[in-house]
Amino acid sequence: MHVLVTGAAGMIGRKLVDRLARDRSLNGQAIDKLTLLDIVPAQMPLSVQAIIKTADLSSPGAAEEVIATRPDVIFHLAGIVSGEAETDFDKGYRVNLDGTRNLLEAIRMIGDGYKPKVIYTSSIAVFGAPFPESIPDDFHLTPLTSYGAQKVIGETLLADYTRRGFLSGVGIRLPGITVRPGKPNKAASGFYSGIIREPLAGREAMLPVADDTTNTHASPRAAAGFLVHGASLRPEQLGPRINLTMPGVCCTVGEQIAALRRVAGDRVAARIRREPDEFIMRIVAGWPSRFDATRARELGFTAENSFDEIIRVHIEDDLAGDFVR
Amino acid sequence: MHVLVTGAAGMIGRKLVDRLARDRSLNGQAIDKLTLLDIVPAQMPLSVQAIIKTADLSSPGAAEEVIATRPDVIFHLAGIVSGEAETDFDKGYRVNLDGTRNLLEAIRMIGDGYKPKVIYTSSIAVFGAPFPESIPDDFHLTPLTSYGAQKVIGETLLADYTRRGFLSGVGIRLPGITVRPGKPNKAASGFYSGIIREPLAGREAMLPVADDTTNTHASPRAAAGFLVHGASLRPEQLGPRINLTMPGVCCTVGEQIAALRRVAGDRVAARIRREPDEFIMRIVAGWPSRFDATRARELGFTAENSFDEIIRVHIEDDLAGDFVR
Fold first, then answer.
1. In this structure, are A224 and A307 located in the same domain?
2. Is residue B286 part of a domain?
3. Do A223 and A275 share a structural domain?
4. In chain A, what residues touch B159 (CB-CB under 8 Å)?
5. A23 CA: distance to closest CA in chain B (Å)
6. Range B37-40, long-range pairs (CB < 8 A, 24+ positions)
7. Nearest-CA distance A145 → chain B (Å)
8. In chain B, how many domains are there?
9. Are A36 and A245 a contacting pair, CB within 8 Å?
10. Domain boundary pick from A205, A228, A245
11. Are residues A99 and A117 both part of a single domain?
12. What is the mean predicted confidence (pLDDT) over B72-98?
């Protein structure tokens, strides 16, 4: 089986590639070819030989070239993030919309019965406030960012190309991915990971929002798991509604901190400094916080059961089992 | 005020142009320039001088050329219909998606504070079965046709370009438009108009579905009214959710026929011949039949109050007040 991962150099891309390289198989079939595509060279996984390609899917011919190698399963993660899509309107539409459309078109243009599985990473940014207490699976899509709009369009194209029989798609709407490894970034959502990652590394973290701020989280490991599970679903299980809101742990920032205290102790939790930031509070207030995710759960998607578990996954996967006490 | 109508040669385009030409004003401002664009020359309205342009918005440069004339209000109706978008995949995406995106991009590229109103004709084809008893305003968009997918994408682009301040958009999801004047066509939905129009013209009409088949209808006059009313709404009334499901008369085919009997008599209604067609029944079963349209009603959009009224509008507007008894 030939598996292609686009956006393979990104954080979730790397987690997915590690998982695929460890499993060495997908849906019970051996992975005998793994192509990693990104605009910068993706890291070679430890345990398998992969083909590393650098290309921008929004450039003419780039999608055709990689699709000519006829991957059986395509994990399409490539794209620019929310903040950049908002500050650079042209780039957001070029990369996130045209890049995705080019990929789907390249598949359609093969035209000899080639019909790969396409697992598309979407986002809860497809939703826009105001929200009900918990967002049902059949809630409308009214994004309040260009990134969210591009994800709605990607989902809609994926569903139509699937319905027409050109490919077999599933859209995975990721919740907040926590704990993100690496350095603090400027994303407004950065504190959700920062208040766990930084204290565990012995550093102080700033909390810009109130303790009752609520969000739904899943670990990077769970995100890779969503994508792998998405690849296993049969068209008859999915029906025509192929874009799915993923489950996660819904909790307040206060509950996140309590979990950190349970897992890592008072000294670690004491490294969080409360520094209210009106600007970030306003942005976060417009984000969805809770989802039913009924269909995804029924289809067998699973996330962590508690925020304690999310912290333990971070310690295991990104800190080699240890932290600064 | 300069008003541009794209798709001005189509049925709803003609009804809208007639209305604008009769009113000679929009939102209390005189229309001093009216541009009618379509791929074929639109008909010159009787009472005003209009500029007739033929262009395909999906062709390079076409949108830029018409937008360079800086219309204040743009009614964007241009597009190919559901059946054609399904049989010709390429043409559907080229005309309905690229044509719309080109128009929005041409507006954005002016870039000197130019910010026209854009009234976009969308469709209830954005929804896909299965449906609740009545579709609420916050129901998700899972189209089951390429046409519906293209309308979802058009709505999403319109909302994002509006949010970013490039234009001031409103999307008008039209219900079934009945009674369509003119010749019978091959559209699966053609019978909804055919069973009224043909008997009133003294001809026999075929009814391919059961009498309890339910649909929501508004007249072509009401459709033109939706668009004109859409142009009058201020951004602060609309908020970020600018795509609206329009109201209409929800009734069964049996109720349509009973209305025809009341309005035109038994002899006219007797010209309907029941000829069940499994193929058409199956298609129609996948279409939405009833909508809440709560927000649109609250925003002042109005349709007819009964199917009797819809028939009378047809007799007045398309049959000069008379019919074959």
1. no
2. no
3. no
4. 142-143, 149
5. 34
6. B37/B4, B37/B5, B37/B6, B37/B7, B37/B8, B37/B66, B37/B78, B38/B6, B38/B7, B38/B8, B38/B9, B38/B10, B38/B13, B38/B78, B39/B9, B39/B78, B40/B9
7. 7
8. 1
9. no
10. A245
11. yes
12. 96
Quick one: tokens of B49? 């001088």
Q: Which of B87, B96, B156 to mutate to test the interface with A (most CBs of A within 10 A)?
A: B156
Mind telling me how many Å the CA of A7 is from chain B's nearest CA? Answer: 24
CB contact under 8 A, B141 and A141: yes
Residue B183 is assigned to a structural domain of this protein: no
Residue A128: list chain B partners with CB under 8 A: 240-241
CB nearest to A140's CB, from B89, B139, B149: B139
Distance from CA of A323 to the nearest CA of B (A): 43
The position carrying tokens 């600018």 is B242
Report how far Cα A172 is from the mean position of its chain's Cα atoms: 8
Note whether residue A182 is domain-resident.
no
Catalytic pick from A93, A114, A120, A147?
A147
Contact B141 A163 (CB under 8 A): no
Mutate to test the interface with A, among B138, B144, B173, B244 (most CBs of A within 10 A): B138
User: Which residues from chain B sit within 8 angstroms of residue A241, using beta carbons?
Assistant: 128, 142
Instruction: Name the residue facing A241 among B138, B142, B157 (closest C-beta).
Output: B142
**Whole-angstrom Cα Rg for chain B:** 19
Residue A142 and residue A279 share a domain: no
Q: Give the CATH number for residue B42.
A: 3.40.50.720
Same domain, yes or no: A271 and A139? no
CB contact under 8 A, A156 and B143: yes
Determine how many CB atoms are found less than 10 A away from the CB of residue B117: 22
Is ipTM beyond 0.90? yes
* Structure tokens belonging to residue B142: 């899972």
Task: Give residue-wise pLDDT tens across range B232-279.
Answer: 999 999 999 999 999 999 999 999 999 999 999 999 999 999 999 998
Kindly list the residues from chain B whose CB atom is less than 8 angstroms away from the CB atom of residue A89.
164
Measured CA to CA, the distance from residue B68 to residue B116 in angstroms comes to 12
Sign of CA dihedral A7, A10, A12, A17: positive
The answer to the question of residue A195 being in a domain is yes
Q: Are residue A23 and residue A137 in the same domain, yes or no?
A: yes
Q: Is residue A130 located within the same domain as residue A64?
A: yes
Segment (H or E) for B260: helix B253-264
pLDDT digits (tens, 9 = 90+) for A79-105: 999 889 999 999 999 999 999 999 999
Determine the residue type at A66.
Answer: V
Q: Let me know whether A56 and A99 are in one domain.
A: yes
Two structure tokens written together for A31 = 């992975």
Alpha-carbon distance of A124 to A143, in angstroms, equals 9
- Among the listed residues B83, B89, B155, the one whose alpha carbon sits nearest the alpha carbon of residue A163: B89
pLDDT in tens, B165-212: 999 999 999 999 999 998 887 788 999 999 999 999 999 999 999 999
Range of the domain at A126: 2-174+219-245
Best of B160, B163, B164, B244 to disrupt the A interface (most A CBs within 10 Å) is: B160
Nearest to A271 by CA among A284, A257, A259, A281: A257
- The set of residues, in sequence order, having a beta carbon less than 8 Å from that of A245 and lying 6+ positions away, is A124, A135, A137, A173, A175, A291, A292, A293, A295, A296
Residue A285 has what pLDDT?
A: 86
Active site residue A161: no
